[in-house]
Amino acid sequence: MELYDLQNYWWLLISVLGALLVFMLFVQGGQSMLLSADDTPVECEMMVNSLGRKWELTFTTLVVFGGAFFASFPLFYSTSFGGAYWLWMLILFSFILQAVSYEFRGKPGNIFGTRTYDTFLFINGCVGCILLGVAVAMMFFGAHFTVMMGNILDTGSPVISQWAPTHGLEAIFDWKNLILGVAVLFLARTLGSLYFINSISGDERFLKRNRRRVAINGGIFVVFFLTFVALLLTADGLESCNDAEGTFTTGHCFEVRPYKYLHNYLEMWWCAVMFLIGTVAVLYGVYSGAFTKSRKGIWPAGVGVVLVVLSLFFVAGYNGTAYYPSLDDPASSLSIRNSSSSRFTLTVMSWVSLITPLVLGYIAYVWYAMNRRPITPREMETTEEKY
Amino acid sequence: MNDLMSVVDWSRAQFALTAMFHWLFVPLTLGLSLIVAIMETIYLRTRSERWLAITKFWMLLFGINFAIGVATGIILEFEFGTNWSNYSWFVGDIFGAPLAIEGLLAFFMESTFIAVMFFGWKKVSPGFHLAATWLTALGATISALWILVANAWMQYPAGMEFDPVQMRNVMDNFGEVVLSPVAINKFFHTVLSGWVLGGVFVIGVSCWFLLKKRNRDFALRSIKVGGWVGFAGIILTLYTGHGSAVVVSQCQPMKLAAMEGLYNGTNGQSLVGFGILNPEKTPQNDADPMLWEVSIPKGLSCLIDWRNPDGFVPGINDLIDGKMLDTAGNPVPAVSYAERIAMGKKAHDALRDFDRAMVEGDTLAMNTARASLNENYRYFGYGYLESPYDAVPPVALTFYSFRIMVMAGGYLLLFSIVFLYIAYRRPAILSRKWLSWVGMLTIPVVYICSQSGWIVAEVGRQPWIIEGIMPTTAAISKISVASVQLTFWMFAAVFTALLAAEISIMLKQIAKGSKTNYESLKD
To answer: Looking at residue A332, what is its pLDDT?
Structure first.
């Protein structure tokens, strides 16, 4: 394949990983409900144990998302991580706390007590979702950075990518970014409740409470998500300059295009279709979880989330769009053309990526085998194999 | 410039802190996952309830250790971006690939099957459960393979070329990256050292059972499995360690010189067995490098090539001066560090000229600049150095860490042999208290040995983040010193607290395990 096709292919893979990550944030959403006073200790235990058998998948998806971005678009990795230092550090700290909490919370001798580890899970649930939303929002609303390759030869100050002195804190407190962050949090909480409905049985009160939570969190999510969509469709975007033949250039020339993302949806009609189908699927999942007796609302909602997030990544990166617009220097903006790895590296990794169906296959099989029988209060009382 | 140096130092400290914490947990994961898989295999063959209980006990300790290993591991990957952003762009085309492949091939395997391993006893068939346990162990090993390939590439950059248009390195041969001699030795040496640590851990904890005179059969069976894994591990670790030293002599001779505290090499170079370095010694003065030493004549020359005991091994000053000799003592052409710095600066100038010519569209000037760049690029990183002495790593830390690692490694070989012998031939001796104490006190020894190995590998290659191509000073992110200091202390506090919790939980579980009556279970 040519470099152009490889760049498209790797943006597709990044988009798939990002979409799956957002779906898997149901773990974080579930964690954000752990400190609720409404739930009894047994119910809390069921929540922790149903989430605890999936947390590593979410964690791994995040790590692979980062690794794949590093390998395929290293200029994004160096610019965003080295620049928005505090944003990423806070995300990482929250995930450190999560990684030990499931294993340590119920074990004797854990020093800090079960409540502390549950609080860690709560923090990861809230902070992780909001800040990941903020990080993704910068792909649409831009960030304060510059990229100067020539700096590498300045021995006194050799850094290529430079960021605003607040190093990501300014992004966290940008209201547009926060809109998406809060939307992601309430989406995750909705998915978390849908997951509980699907994977826990034998407690009708708990079931009803989660149906109510789906309705409330789903409603709040819809409000914030629609606000984000309104902002997105009315936002200006940076587009690669056209050459004499009218095709997008691959370098660092960008120009502002009003309503860029709206145009992207119109020009890439299949993205708009994905977005609409996905939105309907999410709403159907919320409806069936909140207002019907179905326990399977997580699946249409999950498929819908994946479709919507995929379409958002597509309009962020395809059609000559700068997926990481610089607010300080448009020429420093990143597109999938100017920030990617070389053709050789993308080719090698593309061969490796052919194993993806096998990976998805064994994940699906293990998911089925482990979730075939829902968790029940009785299981929590009798089994020793629990968190 | 001072601010830049502080950021570099604090970023190095933060990376070292994270890596050393991470390496407390990873080798135990590598070793214990294998041991648990072997134990479960025995259980499935014998259907013995005792083996099932033994498997579950060690699996529990594995899980506690695994969680904190995951917590520290995520930071390492992202710190390449947060703290070493220039590096991430300059070589991301090469370095990122192993990390992505690690995630796809290994992390998903581990994270998927570990859930089956812990919670699937009653949810899947025994055969599938055993497969999940082995796949978790395999996932951990594959993960180690790819991250060690990435680390080896930093020590021995291969399979790449420099692209002046993008001012970065790009991969041109994946096979050379994966199969470099450094990568192969590093993978086996590191993973096998994890087996040693796992084996010693199992023996040490079993000795606690023996000291308390509880569950003797449980302890004996564990010692046998741990002992064999540890023994196989240490034999192969020593073998691959020798291979690593030979490769270091070829690819990173300055690191070898620092490991030996060797300033002026000779033909038939001796090997320092034990020694105390002279703290006054620097490359610039004539002080004796050693205050006291016990050396093996011609040992270092033999170690590098046993067929050539009179071979010349260059010291720090020899390398700086570009002095190399053949076996007969005749000079061999070599590039001094002053010349390397000059060539590195020429490469910088050529790149600047290329960039300017590209902007101006001057093809002829671009070609001229590219030719000069290609001629001098090998020493591109030296262009950032001010003096040849900047290329000398911290000698004392490298020298002493190397000796601690080697001596502890020798002790661990003896330890494995003795415990295996006693377990099979003289099991009655296992009830001796002193032996139990030896077993338990060897656990910190194996950890110190393991950490020392990484100190040799990483401190010994300073100042380079990529050998000869990029020093740490050029690899940094543009962040304030205060930010890095703050995150350093945050990491230090969080990791220390979590380590304390982990040790506390482990001790409680071990104490609980020792009080459980396994002897009453059906065999």
So the answer is: 94
> What pLDDT shows up at residue B454?
96
Taking the C-alpha atoms of residue B30 and residue B230, their distance in angstroms, rounded to an integer, is 12
Q: Is the pLDDT of residue A37 over 80?
A: no
Mind telling me how many Å the CA of A276 is from chain B's nearest CA?
30
The mean pLDDT value for B122-135 works out to 95
Rounded CA separation B322/B342 (Å): 14
Residue B68 has pLDDT above 60, yes or no: yes
Q: What is the mean pLDDT of residues B20-41?
A: 96
- Identify from B478, B488, B503 which residue to disrupt to test chain A contact, counting A C-beta atoms within 10 A and taking the largest count: B478
What secondary structure does DSSP assign to A313-341, as a single string?
Answer: HHHHHSTTBEEE-BSS-GGG-EETTTS--
pLDDT score of B2 more than 70: no
**How many angstroms separate the CA atoms of B412 and A121, rounded?**
40
Task: Give, rounded to a whole angstrom, the gap between the first and last alpha carbons of chain B.
Answer: 69
φ, ψ for residue B39 (rounded to 5)? -60, -40
Tokens encoding B357: 């010519």
Domain definitions of chain A by residue range: 3-382
Half-sphere exposure of A173 (CA within 13 A, CB side): 5
Candidates B104, B174, B480; nearest CB to A64: B104
Pairing of strands B290-296, B271-277: antiparallel
Using 50, 70 and 90 to split pLDDT, how confident is the model at B4?
low
Tell me which residue in A108, A163, A370 faces B116 most closely, judged by beta carbons: A370
CB A191 within 8 A of CB A25: yes
**3-state secondary structure string across B448-468:** HHHHHHHHHHHHCCCCEEECC
B377-429 pLDDT, tens digit per residue, is 999 999 999 999 999 999 999 999 999 999 999 999 999 999 999 999 999 99
What percent of the residues of chain B are helix, what percent strand, and what percent coil, each to the nearest 5? 75, 5, 20
Q: What ipTM did this prediction achieve?
A: 0.92
CB contact under 8 A, A369 and B500: no
Residue closest to B80 by CA, chosen among B171, B183, B153, B159: B153
Contact status of B179 with chain A (Cβ, < 8 Å): no
User: What secondary structure, in 3-state letters, does A220-246 show?
Assistant: HHHHHHHHHHHHHHHCCEEEECECCCC
Dist. CA B246–CA A108, nearest whole Å? 48
Collapse the DSSP code of A248 into the 3-class scheme (helix H, G, I; strand E, B; otherwise coil) and give the result.
strand
Look at residue B327 and tell me whether its pLDDT is greater than 70. no
Helix (H, G, I), strand (E, B) or coil at A143: strand
* Yes or no, beta carbons of A369 and B116 under 8 Å apart: yes
**pLDDT of residue B1 exceeding 60:** no
Averaged pLDDT of chain A: 93
Nearest chain A CA: its distance from B262 CA (Å): 30
> Pairing relation of β-strands B168-171 and B160-163?
antiparallel
Cα–Cα distance, A219 to B468 (Å, whole number): 58
Predicted TM-score (pTM) of the model is: 0.93
Query: What pLDDT is attached to residue A248?
Result: 80
Can you name the residues that pair with B507 across neighbouring β-strands?
A: none
Classify residue A251 by its DSSP letter.
S
List the single residue in A71, A100, A102 with the smallest CB-CB distance to B99.
Answer: A71
**How many whole angstroms separate alpha carbon B202 and alpha carbon B206?**
6
Report whether B154 contacts B94 (CB < 8 A).
no
- Is B172 an 8 Å CB contact of chain A? yes
Write out the DSSP string of B178-204. HS-HHHHHHHHHHHHHHHHHHHHHHHH
pLDDT digits (tens, 9 = 90+) for A155-198: 888 899 999 999 999 999 999 999 999 999 999 999 999 999 99
